Amino acid sequence: MATVRETTYDLLRALGLTTVFGNPGSTEEPFLQDFPADFHYVHALHEASAVAMADGYAQATGRPAHVNLHTAPGTGNGMGNLVTAWHNRTPLIVSAGQQSREMLLMEPRLANRHPTELPQPYVKWSHEPVRAQDVPAAFMRAYATAAQPPSGPVYLSLPLDDWHQLADPPPQVRTVATRFAPDPRRLREFAALLAASRSPVLVLGAAVDRAAAWPVAAAVAERLAAPVWSAPAPERAAFPEHHPHYRGVLPYAIAPLAEKLTGHDVVLVVGAPVFRYYPHVPGDHLPPGARLLHVTDDPDEAARAPVGDSLLGDAGLTLAALLDLLPAADRPTPPPRPTPEPPGTDDPPDADALFAALAACWPADGVLVQESPSNLAALRRRLPVTRPASYFTMASGGLGYGLPAAVGIALAERDTGRGRPVVAVIGDGSFHYSVQALWTAAQLRLPVVVLVPVNQQYAILKAFAELKSTPGVPGLDLPGLDLTAIARGYGCATRVVDALPDLADALTGALRADGPTVLPTPISTAIPTLL
Ligand SMILES: Cc1ncc(C[n+]2csc(CCOP(=O)(O)OP(=O)(O)O)c2C)c(N)n1
Fold this sequence. Notes:
This protein has 531 residues and is α/β, with parallel strands linked by helices. It is built from 18 helices and 18 strands. The protein has a six-stranded parallel beta sheet with strand order 2-1-3-4-6-5. A six-stranded parallel beta sheet has the order 9-8-7-10-11-12. Strands 14-13-15-16-18-17 form a six-stranded parallel beta sheet. Helix 3 (47-61) crosses helix 14, helix 8 (214-224) runs parallel beside helix 11 and helix 12 runs parallel beside helix 13 (376-382). The chain is globular, with a radius of gyration of 24 Å. Residues 80, 372-375, 397-400, 427-430, 433, 455, 457-461 line the site of thiamine diphosphate.
């Protein structure tokens, strides 16, 4: 007779979940004992890194990923990036150890007191099996729940004495749908409104990229002769950013966003919230006379939109179905976007000049991971994303995602055999939230490049304080940090890029290395404006 542990490993194998990200503790050891040779345990030194690595891996492989955390404290440490996984729509199966059932009544050390409540509300489903024999089937349900739309993280709390129990017969290995098509009648209404529109505009979000739908998005934009904006603060790029219809990323405040849409009568939003606002700049959500049509696979996202009519459906399937119904528009194509001015030549450079230099030596198939808050606008302006599934950041606003996510993405690039180079641009503040991910990259010999614009401050918070008139906030400067020593301590190569002409050589060398390289690059301390 098989044990719960054996039956669970067989199921994980059948589901293709043979990579386990984690940080082990006593409550996980009975699960991890005699770790099978066909599984890969990716050791993170902190749970925040484990969760974000798994998130990056899941997004880059396009499949759910499994992360194993240490009971309540490990879950707590992973929570910030669980919040991010929720907003990123990443199908993550988070399992966590729990103390022995026999002792739970008296709450021993490391008992998870309210295990199903602890990760709420940032999981789709949270469960502690009622019997040890339910553990394998709970994994099956967790997998199905995480993968089905809207995809997202789930949580299993697993008592450590369950693993040696005798199992029931194994659960059936099931498959579930990961996308669904829109209601045909409502779809026709949307198509009719678009066809009758005088001046439609498209606003596209990360779900378009998750659905591998760039070509159909471009075909719809061309059919409608409509300009295309990226939804504010997107976690992935949704459209070829060198396409003549592309306009840029919408601002993330109410009034400035509506202002950019002025002149349009129909705004078609696909695969993004309406909208991911950040600083409060009050105003109308839409320009006068405009009507918003919202396509999303998440009923909750549709319900909380302040304006617009919604259609539930997968971004790619819905765009394809719309394309079939739309006649070619009889209007000129939108005028091309002005090319940005040449960057300045100050020393130290500003972010704009740094990213212009980065764009000049960017590897064609490079994957960009971004967590550099005040420099985001400059980065997105200077380095257009021209290939699908090659730009990743956090949807949540929580720091500590980008660095470990880049490590998970680089591992996925290796495991899938795609081998695309991964470059993370991480602010010198953001760098420290999950910095220990560097060690995992070094141990796995992943050639991730981490470019750190060093401004020795939390510049975006200074910009926010300026916007909101809150002077005198403490804790916004970052003196006395030695990034080179820190990176070396975790086993990385480093090179300080003191002069922009050195960047190309530093980047090319780092991409050829057999391990991670950190490139601290001093930049101007001038504070970019927030809007
Ligand atoms: C987990 C978490 N803690 C704190 C913050 C608040 N916060 C937002 S941006 C920021 C500073 C980021 O600094 P840095 O990476 O150097 O980027 P810069 O703003 O200087 O471009 C902080 C602390 C956050 N977003 N997430």
